[in-house]
Amino acid sequence: MIEDRVYARLYAAATGSPVTLDCATFYPVQAQQGVIPPYIVYSVIAKEAQWGIRGSAGLTNTRLLVEVWSPIYREAKRLLTQVKEALEPEGADFKVAAVEFMEDYYDEDVRRYAAAATFSLWHSQD
What we know:
single chain; STM4215-like
């Protein structure tokens, strides 16, 4: 699954290889209750398998939403940049084709800032 590949990239960055991610707390879909910020949440928002005249092309384009949550706005922005740097290098697992930064916001209920982006990822079919 592409989620496992994204997790592996984020984990590698959180442990300092090959880029550094200053946050080792990341979750698929939803953060755990009571987690201490900062943390990262990522989820697949769309998937499209590619087909040609002869059938499956063996490639999938996945849209991945990444949100970084922090009580400090600048920290959320900085960590989102680090996530981008961790996901961007082309590898055998996937390739980032596009990144769209979304509007940042503050959630009064949890008293945290969110910096978010969507990533278009090309990868072999799951």
